[in-house]
Amino acid sequence: MKNVLIVSYSQSGQLADIVAALARPLETEEIRIHHEVLRPEPAFPFPWPFFAFLDAFPESVRLDPRPNRPLSIPDDTAFDLVILAWTVWYLSPSQPITAFLQSAEGKRLLAGKPVVSLVACRNMWCCAFDTLKTLVTQAGGQLVDHAALIDESPAFASFITTPRWMLTGRRDRFLGLPPAGINTRQTKSVTRFGTALAEALARDEEKCGQPMLSGLRAVSITPHLVMSERTGLRAFRVWSGIVRLCGRAGQWRRIPALMLFALYLIIIILTVVPLHMALQRLIAPLLARRAAAIIRHYEQPSGADGARMAHE
Ligand SMILES: Cc1cc2nc3c(=O)[nH]c(=O)nc-3n(C[C@H](O)[C@H](O)[C@H](O)COP(=O)(O)O)c2cc1C
């Protein structure tokens, strides 16, 4: 009998549906699953009021999250495998998952364990993944696999539809743009990861420290997006410091600085980001080596090839 811990936090239910698709093949007589849904205290609202959405920014970037309520896992439970299902907030792991990884309970559960990461977000997860890897290592876990699901609609469309979804709860078609988020086909195809994990557990492969999801097109990397992310995160670090100088999370004193940040973000996204992208395309041959290094880095550990895609 194998004990598998799934840790997740989903606001709209998108990640919850993805986790359900992943878990289905694992629900066998040989595997016992404990699914821990993180509960921040106080809860983050969904849909988000505008200021609450902005106010989550500094602490997400600074890895200074709101704590979670105590977990429901008995102290003496030991797991063979931990699956972290998470989302990205401001180019960083969402606050509940950061809080879990930093907590004494999280560290106890991860210490010495193989960890599988599954992220579902708009399209920018690479910087957050670097952070997550560090947090997992600091907690004593060994990250053996990583799979990423992103919104397949064009970046300009999800730039409008994702904030609309977060702020209103509506993710349907809007102004002729595709619905926000991960589509049903993508969600269903996550079953391939569950099947591969179930087979690997049956062969004790989780003990080998090697990826179990290779050959299943676990990730797909767009290097120019990663370059934009890295620039964005540098700016986010500066802005989050400025906002935190003005007050603590939830304090009204932060609103002017947060408004300035929102204005900066909109201006940058409408001007610098498209220019940056166009420039990167123009000088793509000059960036080829950097792009190849980015792909090599973020394809680890599970890879982008689909050699075993018969599982789908
Ligand atoms: C405060 C906040 C910030 C977000 N920042 C990012 C981001 O930087 N990159 C990204 O790809 N998605 C971002 N998203 C989208 C989330 O990663 C995720 O796709 C969305 O919240 C739906 O997840 P759910 O299952 O929790 O509802 C953000 C969402 C929220 C609420």
Output the keywords.
alpha/beta; 312 residues; 12 helices; binds flavin mononucleotide; 2 domains; Rossmann fold; two-stranded antiparallel ribbon; 5-stranded parallel beta sheet
Textual characterization of the structure:
The model has no long low-confidence stretch (mean pLDDT 96). The strands form two sheets. The protein has a five-stranded parallel beta sheet, sandwiched between helices. The chain has a two-stranded antiparallel ribbon with strand order 4-5. It is globular, with a radius of gyration of 19 Å. Helices cover 48% and strands 13% of the residues. It contains twelve helices and seven strands. The protein has helices at 14-23, 50-61, 95-102, 104-110, 126-138, 155-168, 184-189, 191-202, 223-246, 255-270, 272-282, 284-299; strands spanning 2-8, 31-37, 81-86, 88-89, 92-93, 114-121, 142-150. A hairpin with a 2-residue loop joins strand 4 and strand 5 (92-93). The protein is an alpha/beta fold and 312 residues long. The two termini are 26 Å apart. It folds into two domains: 2-219 and 301-311, Rossmann fold (3-Layer(aba) Sandwich), CATH 3.40.50.360; 225-292, no CATH class. The longest helix has 24 residues, at 223-246. The protein binds flavin mononucleotide. Flavin mononucleotide (FMN) is lined by residues 10-12, 14-15, 53, 56, 87-91, 120-125, 162, 166.
